[in-house]
Amino acid sequence: MSAPSLEARDIVKRFGRVTAVNGVSFSIAQGDVLTLLGPSGCGKTTTLRIVAGFEKPDGGAVDIQGRTVVAPEKGVNIPPENRGLGMVFQSYAIWPHMTVFQNVAYPLVIRRMKAPELKERVEQTLELVGLQGYGERPATMLSGGQQQRVALARALVYSPGILLLDEPLSNLDAKLRNQMRIELKRLQERVSVSVLFVTHDQIEAMSLSTKLAVMNQGKIEQMGSPKEVYEQPSTPFVEDFIGRVLRFRGAAAETTEDGGVMVEVEGTGARLRVGVSEDRVSPGTPVQVAIRPEDLQVHDGEGSNVLRFSIERVIYLGAECELLLRFGDVTYTHVVSRSLQSELGSTIDLYLPPKQLRVWAQDRAASQQPAISPAPVPGFETARAASATS
Amino acid sequence: MAQSAVSLPEIRYRSSSVNWAALWMYALLGIVIFLVMVPLTLMLLNSFQLARPGQPPVYGLKGWQQALSDSSMAAAMKNTVLLSVTRESIALVIGVMLAWLIARTDMPWKSGLEFVFWVAFFLPPLPVAIGWILLLDKQFGIVNQWLQLLPFIKSPVFNIYSFWGIIWVHLTTNLGVKVLLLAPAFRNLDAALEESSRSCGVTALGTLRRVVVPLMAPAILVSTILGLIRSLDAFEVELLLGVPIRLYVYSTKIRDLVTFEPPQYAPALALGTMLLVVLLLLVAIQRLYIGRRVYKTIGGRGFSTRQTFLGAWRWPAAITVTGIAVAVTVVPMLVLLMGTFMRAFGYFNIPNPWTIEHWQRVLSDPLLLRALRNTLVVGAGTAVIGTVFYSLIAYVIVKTRFPGRAALDLLSWLPWAVPGILMGLALLWTVFATPVLLPLYGTVGVLVLALIIKSMPFGVQLSKSVLLQLGDELEEASRIVGGSWLRTYRSVILPLLGPTLITVALIGFMSAARDISTIVLLGSSESRTLSLLSLDFAYGGQFEKATVVAVLTAGLVIAAAGLTRKFGGKLGIAGSNN
User: What average pLDDT does range B437-447 have in this prediction?
Assistant: First the structure.
C-alpha cells in the first residue's frame, strides 16, 4: 500500500484573530500510530477535529486513504460520516439511552448489516475489548474503564482504516490509565489500524506512538520516533515538554575541534564541555546548557565537566533520599539511594557527560519556554516534570 | 489489514455539492419568519386597509382614526390596564406569602397544597368562571341565595358580573402561576440569610418582609412583569362576565369589531397594532434587564433547605392557605360538576331538581361529539407537529453555527409577547392573504397552525435548556461512525430529548385543549373545539349544557397535566455519562 493512511498538508485554522493551527503537516503510514503531543491550547485537538470533519480548516488539505476529504481551496469538504474514520472521544460519548450492544451495533445498523452477521460481529468486537457478556447492560451502568472499552469497540466494530483518539485516557484514574494504555497498544497492533492520537500526557505518547509530533502554538515543533524526540529534541520547548531537564545559563567560550563548545556557567566560573552544539553559537553569546537529570552521574572528586553542588536539604523518603541541590542559581532535586546518605557531606559532585549536554542560544531558549510551568517552590526552582501539566 | 479485510456493506452517499444541512436550516428559518412575521406585518398593513377581505383593497386612515378617537376604545384600554394591574397586585401579595409558606416554612400539608396550586395553574379559566357564575350570580347564585335566607339580608350580596367578579375568577390562574414560579425561587434562597435575621430577634414575618422579599426582588419582579404580559391574554372571562354589563377590555372589543356585521377589521387591527407595540416594548425591557430565561424555573426540582419554624402560627397558616387553595380550585370545580346534574341551575325548590338529562343530551349531541373530535385532533396535531418543529428550532439555535440562529432564537420567542386574540386576528388575515392557506380557513388546520405559533416560545425554550446540557460529543460519535445528520437526530438527539419532548407535547396538547383567545376568531361551527363550544353555550346563557362541556374540557386538561407531572419528574437527560 503506497498511499499513506492519512495525510495532512499545511492545515491552517483560525478562530477569529487567533490562529489555532498554523501550517500543520503530517502523514501516517498504514498501521502506524502518530501522536500529537502538546500543552492545552497548542492546536492538537483542533487538528484532530479537522481530520474528523467537525471543524473546517481555513487552508490546507487532508487525504484519507488517498482520497481528499477536505481542501477548502478546492471547495472539498466531505462530512464526518463519509470519511470512514473511527473515533474515541475524551468523554467516551457513550449514548446513555442505549445498551452496550446497541452502542456498539449502531455503526453496523447504519450500514444495514443483517442481524445474524451484525450480532456475531458485535460479540467479536466486545470480546476484543474484553467486554464479552456485557452486551445487555445499560450503558450508564458501566465504570469509566468499561465505558472506555465500549467507546473503543464502537469505533472499531466497522473496521475503519483510521482510528482517532482524543485524549481517551485522561478521564481515567492513574492505575486504570496505565492498564488501558497497555491494552490500547496491544489492541492497536492486533487490528493493525492506523491511529491519530491526541494527548498531553508524555508517557502515553511515548509508549503508544510509532511517530510523535510535539505541537506548540499551532505548529509542529518536532516530529520523529519517541526515541528521537526524547534524545535529540530539536527545540528547547520539546526538550522541556518531554521529560525533565536541568538548565544552566552561561556563555559560549570557545568551540572545540570536534565540533563541541566550551561553555562558562554564569556566575560560577565553572566550565562545561558540550559534545555537539544544536544551535550555532559563536564565542561570547549567551547560551543555556541543558541535560536530562537521569544523565547526571555522582562523581568522586573533581574532574572535567564535574560540578560541585551544595546540598541545601536532605529529605528522607525511606527507600531513597531526596537531595535539594544548588549550583549557582540553579536548584535541583536529586534522588540518591539510602545507602549513599551516610556518605553525604555538605556538597556533592555530579558529572555531566558532554555527549548528553545540549546547548541552546539564550534568546531562543527563553522565548520557547512552555506556556504552562509549575509554580516554583519558593527558593527552589526544581527541574520541571513534564507530566505535571494537565 | 487484519480485521478490515472482513467485507462490510458500504454506505452509499449522494456526492453532491449542495449543502443540504444549510438548506434545511434556511427552510426552517423561512417557515418561522412566515409564521411569526407575516401575520404581524399583515396586521399592521391591513389596519390601513378599509375593504373587507377578498375585495379590492381600499387604503385609508379611517381605522386608526376610529381606534384613536372612539371613546369606547379608550374605555376598553383603560379597563384592560386597570384589571391587569389590580389582579396582578393582589395576586402578587398573596402569591409571595403562599410561595414562602410552601417553600420555606414547616407549615403542615405544604406539598399537597403546592400540588393544588399547580392544578390551579392548569385549570382552564372558562370552567372556573362558569363555576363562579353558578355560585355568585345575582338571581340563581347559590351563595347569594343562601345569604338571603338570613333575616337581615334582603338583596343579593355578590355580583359576579362586575369588575371584582372578573378579578376574583382570575385569581385561580394567577395564584397558580405565582406559586409555580416563586416557590422554586424561594427554595433556592440560602437559609442562613434568614436564620441570621431570626437570631437578631426578628420574627418570622418580619424576616419575610425585611430579608426574604428584598432578596427575592428580582424573581418577584420577573414574575410580575410576566404576569402583566400574560394577563393581556385574558379573553373568555371578560367576555362572559364583562360584556353583559358593557365592561369591555381590548380583547373583547376586538372580537366585537370583528364579529360586527359588517366586520370592522381596520379599527380592530389598529387597536391590535397599538397594543402590540406597547407589549413589545414591555417585553424588550424585560428581556434587556432581566434576561430571557422566562421558563427556566418551571419544572425545576427544588432542593431542601432548612425551614423556618412558624410555631403557634403553623396551624392557622395551614388552614388559611388550605382555604385559599380550596376556594380557587375545589369549590368552583365541584359546583361546576353539581351544575351538570341540576335540571335548572340554582333552583332547588322545583320538583326533581336533579337529573342526568344534560349529560345524556349533550353526550348524544353531534355538536359535542364533533367538538370532542376537533379538540383531540387540534390537541394531538399541535402536540406532535409542534414538538418536532420546536425541537428542530432549538437544535439549530443551540447546536449549529447557522448564521441565522440568532434571528431564529428571537423569532421563536416573539409570539410570547403576542396575546392570543391578536395572534388569531393576525393569522386570520394571513389566511385570507395567502392563497395556499385559504383552503384551511374554517378547518381545524388553521387552529393547529395558530396554536403551534402560540406554544412556540415555551416549546423552544424548554427544548433548548435540555439541549444545552447535552454534550456535543454524543452527536459527533454518531457522525463519525457514519450516521448522517438526520440519522443522528433520530437515533441520538430525539431519544435523549425524549422526556422533555413528552412534556412539551403534553403542554402543547393542554394549551390547545384549553385555549380560547387564540382560536376564537379562527374557529367555525365546523371546527369548534370543546372550549369554544362551552364558551358559545355559556355566552348564550345555556349554562346547563355549558357546564357539561366545561367539565369535559377541564377533565381533559387535568388528565394531561397529571401525565406531565409524571414525566416532568424525569425532566432532564435520561442519564448523563460523565
Answer: 88
Predicted confidence (pLDDT) per residue in B361-395, tens digit: 888 888 888 999 999 999 999 999 999 899 899 98
Which band of pLDDT confidence, cut at 50, 70 and 90, is reported for residue B203? confident
pLDDT over 60 (residue B290): no
Q: What is the structure's pLDDT at A35?
A: 94
Q: Is A1 inside a domain boundary? A: no
In a domain, B48, yes or no: no
State the DSSP string of B316-369: HHHHHHHHHHIIIIIHHHHHHHHHTTBSSTT--SSSS-B-SHHHHHHHT-HHHH
Chain A contacts of B484, Cβ < 8 Å?
79, 81
- Both B385 and B444 in one domain: the answer is yes
A82 and B6 in contact by Cβ < 8 A? no
C-alpha to C-alpha distance for B18 and B194, rounded to whole angstroms? 61
pLDDT score of A65 more than 50: yes
ipTM of the complex: 0.77
Answer yes or no: are the C-beta atoms of B423 and B415 closer than 8 Å.
Answer: yes
State how far the Cα of B335 lies from the Cα of B355, in Å rounded to an integer: 15
Q: Cβ distance A158 to A185 under 8 Å?
A: no
Residues of A in contact with B4 (CB under 8 A): 159-161, 191, 193
Shared-domain flag, residues B416 and B316: no
B203 versus B450: the higher-pLDDT residue is: B450
Nearest residue of B to residue A104 by CA position? Answer: B481
B 15-54 residues with CB < 8 A to A: 17
- d(CA A111, CA A102) in angstroms, rounded, equals 14
The residue of chain B with its CA nearest to that of A105 is: B481
Contact (Cβ atoms closer than 8 angstroms) between residue B223 and residue B136: no
B142 and B222 both lie in a single domain: yes
Which residue in A89, A159, A190 is closest to B476 by CB distance?
A89
Closest-CA residue of chain A to B477: A93
Considering the domain boundaries, does residue B574 fall inside one? yes
Is the domain of B30 the same as that of B132? no
Domain end position, chosen among A182, A204, A238: A238
Residue B2 at interface with chain A, using a CB cutoff of 8 Å: yes
For the segment A215-263, what is each residue's pLDDT rounded down to a tens digit? 999 999 999 999 999 988 888 899 888 888 888 888 888 777 777 788 8
Inter-CA distances, B486 with A1, A17, B22, B117, B392, Å: 35, 33, 13, 41, 11
CATH (domain of B473): 1.10.3720.10
Among A322, A344, A340, smallest CA distance to A331 is for A322
Taking CA–CA distances from A125, the nearest residue in chain B reads B3
Tally the C-alpha atoms within 13 A of residue A94's C-alpha that lie toward its C-beta. 31
Q: What is the pLDDT of residues B490-510, one digit of tens each?
A: 888 888 888 888 888 988 999
Domain shared by A154 and A244, yes or no = no
Domain count along chain B: 2
Residue range of the domain that includes B27: 19-43+362-578
Q: What is the CATH number of the domain that holds A33?
A: 3.40.50.300
List the single residue in A81, A113, A192 with the smallest CB-CB distance to B483: A81
Q: Are residues B241 and B316 in the same domain?
A: yes
Q: With an 8 Å Cβ cutoff, is B152 touching chain A?
A: no
Q: Which domain holds residue A219?
A: 6-238
Assess if residue B256 is contained within a domain. Answer: no
B328 and B375 co-located in one domain: no
Q: Describe chain B by its helix, strand, coil percentages, rounded to 5.
A: 70, 0, 30
B540 lies in some domain: yes
* Whether residue B526 sits in one domain with residue B500: yes
Instruction: Provide, as residue numbers in chain A, all residues whose Cβ is less than 8 Å from the Cβ of B12.
Output: none
Task: Answer yes or no: is A18 within a domain.
Answer: yes
Model confidence at B44: pLDDT above 70: yes
Residue A161: DSSP 8-state: S
Is residue B484 predicted with pLDDT exceeding 60? Answer: yes
